[in-house]
Design brief:
With about 40 residues, this protein is mainly alpha-helical. It is about 85% helix and about 0% strand. Pfam families: PEP-CTERM. It comes from Microcystis wesenbergii Mw_QC_S_20081001_S30D. Keywords: Membrane, Transmembrane, Transmembrane helix.
Length: about 40
């Protein structure tokens, strides 16, 4: 367990849900900006 715990702390990779949330918010922001320009 100690080896896997050190591995997760060393990589510091955010949770998949966090990544999906950021991508969704970023995508929606880009789409709204693109639509406002037209």
């Amino acid at each position: 367990m100690s080896s896997s715990n050190k591995f997760t702390q060393g990589t510091k990779v955010p949770e998949p849900g966090t990544i999906l949330g950021l991508l969704t918010v970023g995508g929606l922001g880009l789409v709204s900006r693109f639509k406002k320009q037209k």
